[in-house]
Amino acid sequence: MQDQTVKRVVIAGGGTAGWNVAAVLAQQLGPLLDITLVESDEIGIVGVGEATIPTFRSFHALLGIDEREFMRETQATFKLGISFEDWGKIGDRYIHPFGDVGKSSWMADFHHLWLMGRARGLAGDLGEHCFEHRAAIAGKFAESEKSMIKYAYHLDASLYARYLRKKYEPKGVKRIEGRIEWIEQDGESGYVTALVMENGDRVAGDLFVDCTGLRGLLIEQTLAAGYEDWRHWLQTDRALAVQTPSTGTIPPYTRAMARSAGWQWRIPLQSRVGNGLVYSSAYQEDEQARDELLGNLEGEPLTEPRLIRYVTGRRKKAWDKNVVAIGLSSGFLEPLESTSIHLIQIGATRLIQLFPFGGNFESLAARYNERTRSDFEHVRDFIILHYKLTERDDTPFWRSCRDLDIPDSLAERIELFRESGIIQPAAEELFKVASWLFVMEGQGVVPRSHHHMGALLGDQRLQRALESLRNNIGQAVGQMPRHEDFLKRYCAPDRR
After folding, report:
1. Which residues are 154's β-sheet partners?
2. Low-confidence ranges of the chain (pLDDT < 50)
3. 274: part of which helix (H) or strand (E)?
4. Is 103 a catalytic residue?
């Protein structure tokens, strides 16, 4: 321990980002660190990202969090995927589920069998061959220790931050309430040495984590790490968020409904519904966006719509000197595929893996920045995919999306699938084969060819294999309870 020169970690900002970082540092490295989190109750959090993806569950496993307790505390519901409505054409709908499609072999992925079956009139819709897709459509959900179902959650982001604070303040995270007045730096190196509070208190540290949101108080306002603007690819730059009461059933999926200059989300919680409109101010005035959002709500709004301005892109250096930006301070990608909290959590776990115990920052920062750049670009390309593949031409916004000049990395993927049906994401990428498949197929991309391994089976065996899979999934889904019924039992108050 004598060679540990970095021990004092100061987290600037709370919310989902700050408390996720504090929680995992305390849980995994607690005895080695002094962890301080500085936040102000007067500064609100963005709170847009109320939907998650399955990696969220892996992060909670690191924290040892009890699922039922977490869901009760955050009003969470289960999520099996995202329903995309009117994205390809007006009237279209497809679901991007979290599950895989069939069983793949070393030779080719399962969907090549399905493509051959469809070409020969032997296969049903793609979603019929995915358990999570069928369960989502049916509004069903069940989970047990033996279950292999892939799922995530919808949650109240404000309650989630409070939940983590309640659990991890007693485990050694020192919380300081107040506003940061200015940042103290070393005169020679430029490294941050302390946060100076409005009341004059000085919070010194060895490593600082910037969770101050879009303003990037340490990483940008102090260190000027730079920002890479991606609005030429992802044109939305504003969001309006509003809450409504729960109405009717609680579907186990997020809805993403294309609108005139962007899209609207609908996220069902136990006690209310989170709604919002993501849009481009170049194509829609704020008042028009507000009217469009309010005109498409199910139920009366519980709050006034809250406007959030953002610039899509990423920080050129997420780790600069002794400051690591995590959350919105590291960059912003719209919540279309619910990746905001994932990027927080992967940033926090990577910091643990690359923690600078000995005070040597440069090589670790370079590695961290390269991996973070890759994470952001992979997610960026997947989000652009949804816009680029539209066939809509009913508004200037959608025409501009259809005609986008997209990154070469994405253009190559789309063309590979068009030519051959092949999808080969790298091992470290977040979105795997099934995700790319459901979005491309859902928005009308039909491969000109595919792998012919299905021909080795012959038509009868191919048809039986596809029918057997569909029937087995159908029977399993048929035995599941409705999502809201399972939720009610699963999240019932603990009476121990």
Report:
1. 51, 77
2. 1, 49
3. strand 272-279
4. no
Please pick, among 7, 79, 166, 388, the residue that the annotation labels catalytic. Answer: 79
Written in H, E and C, the secondary structure of the chain is CCCCCCCEEEEECCHHHHHHHHHHHHHHHHHHCEEEEEECCCCCCCCCCCECCCHHHHHHHHHCCCHHHHHHHHCCEEECEEEEECCCCCCCEEEEECCCCCCCCCCCCCHHHHHHHHHCCCCCCHHHHCHHHHHHHHCECCCCCCCCCCCEEECCHHHHHHHHHHHHCCCCEEEEECCEEEEEECCCCCCEEEEEECCCCEEECCEEEECCHHHCCCCCCCCCCCEEECCCCCCCCEEEEEEEECCCCCCCCEEEEEECCEEEEEEECCCEEEEEEEECCCCCCHHHHHHHHHHCCCCCCCCCCEEEECCCEEECCCEECCEEECHHHHEECCHHHCCHHHHHHHHHHHHHHCCCCCCCCHHHHHHHHHHHHHHHHHHHHHHHHHHHCCCCCCCHHHHHHHCCCCCHHHHHHHHHHHHHCCCCCCCCCCCCHHHHHHHHHHCCCCCCCCCCHHHHCHHHHHHHHHHHHHHHHHHHHHCCCEHHHHHHHHCCCCCC
The pLDDT value given to residue 43: 67
Q: What integer pLDDT is reported at residue 247 of this predicted model?
A: 81
Beta strands in 40-131 (DSSP E): 77-79, 81-85, 93-97
Q: What would the pLDDT profile of 41-75 be if each residue is shown by its tens digit?
A: 876 655 554 899 999 999 999 999 999 999 999 99
Render pLDDT for 61-117 as a digit per residue (tens, 0 to 9): 999 999 999 999 999 999 999 999 999 999 999 999 999 999 898 999 999 999 999
Q: What is the identity of the amino acid at 129? A: H
* Tokens (6 digits) for 479: 């035995």
Which tokens in the block code for residue 305? Answer: 């719509």
